[in-house]
Amino acid sequence: MCQVEEEYSGPLEKTSLPTVSKKCMKCKESTAVLIIRVGDAFCRDCFREYFVHKFRAMLGKNRVIFPGEKVLLAVSGGPASSSMLTQVQEGLSRDAPKKLRFAPGIIYIDEGGACDQNAEEREKTLSQMEAIFRKTGFPYHIVSLEQVFSLPNSVLEPVSCGPERPGSSYKAAVDQYLQQKEVNQRQGQLATEEAQDAVAHLSVQASQVSPEHKQALEKLFSSLKTLTARQDMLQTLRQHLILHTARLNGYSKVMMGDSCTRLAIRLLSNISLGRGASLAVDTGFSDPRYGDVVIVRPMRDYSSKEIAFYNRLFGVRSLFISGLGTKTSDKASIQQLTESFVIKLQADFPSTVSTIYRTSEKLHTACPPQTSGAVAADKCLLCLCAVCNKADAASASHASLISERLSRGELGMEAKIDPASCCPSGTLDPFSCQREGQGCGEGGSCTAGRAPAPADLKSLLCYSCRLTVKDMAAEDTLPPYITSEAEKRWNRAQLKEEVREFLLEDEDEEVG
Amino acid sequence: MPVQCSSCACSRAVLKRPKTGHSLCKGCFFWAFEEETHRTITSARLFDRGETVAIGASGGKDSTVLAYVLKVLNERYDYGLNLLLLSVDEGITGYRDHSLEAVKRNQQQYDLPLKIVSYEELYGWTMDAIVKQVGVKNNCTFCGVFRRQALDRGAVMLNVDKICTGHNADDVAETVLMNVLRGDVARLNRCTAVSTAGGGSDGVVPRCKPLKYAYEKEIVLYAYFKKLHYFSTECVYSPNAYRGHARAFLKDLEAVRPSAIADVIHSGENLSLKEGVKMPVQGTCSRCGYISSQALCKSCVLLEGLNRGLPKLGIGKHHRLHGRILARQPLTPVEEEKMKTLEF
After folding, report:
1. For chain A, what percent of residues have pLDDT higher than 90?
2. Sorted alphabetically, which keywords does the UniProt record give (chain A) (predicted)?
3. Using an 8 Å Cβ cutoff, are A242 and A109 in contact?
4. Interface confidence (ipTM) of the complex
5. Chain B 259-298, CB below 8 Å of chain A: which residues?
6. Which residues of B fall within a CB distance of 8 Å from A267?
7. What is the reported pTM?
8. Residue A393: closest CA among chain B residues belongs to which residue?
9. Distance of CA A468 to the CA centre of its chain
10. Confidence grade of residue A426 (pLDDT, cut at 50, 70, 90)
11. How many CB atoms lie within 10 A of CB A352?
12. Which helix (H) or strand (E) holds B272?
């Protein structure tokens, strides 16, 4: 396990370069133009067929997108999501066999405000993206990141599993779709209205970036001290905007263009970020954490290499848009570091990505994301995953907490047996001890009602989001929908504490 | 300007804790390190009063610090444990003979009984002899498998209740990453456990890792300020490769965000497997009775390979040959040829 050049049986085996055969291994007629995997040389047509089939097969196998359903395609302009857009177009075109039958729309989030792009650059990117979207003929929504400052609280409220579809089985839905297309459409509208009732109206228009919001966003991102935290926050806010737009416009599914390579990187970086409990929802085919809007990842079977080849061979346009990590070093953040690690390892051990990816298939969420009576307090305020505060004292999170408190002299100094090296009595501050204690599930027992103080906010977060907020200089720079929702949850927990002795059912979980 | 200790606020800080970033004085750091180990032990109920506990001692920093801290805590908190040192002599000239010197010094300093079991007495092979036959590649497979069993055998000889090893937080986090990279979900599932159950089968002694949450850097700091003597040389046969990648990655992660090591362990502790994922079933080796998921345990297969002059027998998966090994039947010439040499 630890020697140079050791051979590995199975997944980690170093494969020798194949002899390049000139013919396509599939049709055995045409000249091969690329090698996707070791030994698999494909000609142009066969590759196209293979690529297109994979997309349909992924959707067909999982059967989560119902005919006629409104599906929002999250397009960033990068190779994977652009390729996904092309696949949807292809699948919906009239002559496609096994035609896709959902109603797509596109969302693009303009993140220029967080990534130090000037107005000119942003304008240029937007017009390029719009040109691409207009060509598709699909409805599109261009949302700027600044709009998080006008999001309503409702984004963070858990919604019980969306409106039950008529005939919850896929087959029934297909039949219904074929029988009465129009009725189905009207039902779609109904669902839209329902969603619109639930969330406050918000006009989502790219051109209206108010200067205050622009400043607020800059303040928020400069308050985050590390690139790791900035990238994590960006990801969170982006998800919220997509979710809100989907709800507002009645989309019940969102398609993300995450490739297999991307997901392998995310899996490993999420482990490093302490998100082990929610790996399955973060990297799986479908992500049900939001209840009424389900995230699906139809590109998860493609490697980034396949996508790059497809885009190149078939002229799929993608844009390079500089992001937070552009022009930074490999070791600037945990996400960057993981990305370069995986990609370098993949170069030496070609099955790295697929092995990591297959690991993810065997995992599921430690805490079930959707128990019937799920309440807001059970879910992380930011990522909406289960807040898994295992009250277990024998755990890494508890051990870190102990280290923290010991280093600040908050724990049991009176028991110290070596007084010579130190002052006799420690600065045991009961208040700060209590504040720290909420990490292990005692959050409800703290002081009187007030706007959420730093420690209070953390009690509403999962382990990983707590780390992100810890890297934050000023928590009041967070968008209002987050702070006000935090306050609401906090007050509710407080209220609950006050009436606790009169409650017959012991619902401990809500005070976590 | 001298920095004040963030814990007692009256002494001058001498170090910055790698784990939390706080500046601490010597006394407070010792206290914190020992207290954390104590809490790991008590919160996970690693030991019961009156037990005999063998400390797997290699002479390296982790086991040296572990032996020292356990001795201190056993007295301070009156665990009522009977501690002793257990070492394995792999028979590596220029490496283990030197490190065993360090263990013997520890034995005298800490006044703990020491037992050394050697590969030579257990298996009839020293690592030097194995390397001669196997070559420099793949020999870690032999050493690792044999050591695991040797510790258990030694523990049985000494009639101890538990073995504790010096695995630290870095080791555990690294193993989590390794198992993800190798797709080994069965190990991924159990590698973060602080202790293993005895399982009731003979020859398997429960193991635990009291330093599971201690950062490697803090162990070195502790040894440095306590002036503990340990042996620090890489094994002459193991220039790391694949595990080295995981190790380097973890160190980089730690540099970006010091809590990353604890965060990886936290992730590992909170992973759970889908139902229906095939897992190896623990059984016993039909030759030696040691735990094994196959008919023959790995060390019996490796040993058989060595004794038959077919070292590759135990490298990679050759489960279908187990039946014939058990029945002591010869292999076919073609198979023999495959298992013979490790050069390619």
Report:
1. 41
2. Cytoplasm, tRNA processing
3. yes
4. 0.88
5. 259-260, 262-275, 277
6. 180
7. 0.85
8. B43
9. 15
10. very low
11. 25
12. strand B272-273
